[in-house]
Design brief:
2 strands, two-stranded parallel sheet, mainly alpha, 122 residues, globular
Length: 122
């Protein structure tokens, strides 16, 4: 049986950052280039708001993130980070490696690139 396409929307990707921008004072000194800063950002800034979303929104956001990792070029990934107005400096080095690391920290090793075609809106 054929699977239905997954709805994704590039405009949903900023929702991945949760409420980090609203809690600016907490994140100003965090360095995403070191493990401690990265883990704090994921465990305290990203996971709780993500898990508070209804399951359907979690699924759509996760699939949008997967779509971005597989379809966005590096410039689009940089834009997705910088346009979110996060109170954090973008990590140095390969932006895609940062996003893959972020994926693994949030979702484990469930990053499969062979998925049914996605319908991208927006």
């Amino acid at each position: 049986m054929a699977q239905r396409p997954i709805s994704v929307n590039r405009n949903w990707l900023p929702n991945l950052w949760g409420f980090v921008a609203a809690d600016e004072g907490k994140w100003l000194g965090v360095n995403l280039n070191n493990d401690q800063g990265f883990r704090a950002f994921v465990d305290e800034g990203l996971v709780p708001p993500f898990e508070a979303l209804p399951f359907r929104q979690q699924h759509r956001l996760k699939e949008t993130f997967r779509f971005a990792l597989t379809q966005f070029d590096d410039d689009e990934l940089v834009y997705a980070f910088e346009s979110s107005q996060l109170p954090l400096a973008r990590p140095h080095g390969d932006v895609r490696a940062f996003y893959v690391r972020l994926w693994h920290a949030m979702f484990g090793s469930d990053l499969h690139f062979h998925r049914p075609p996605a319908i991208c809106r927006g």
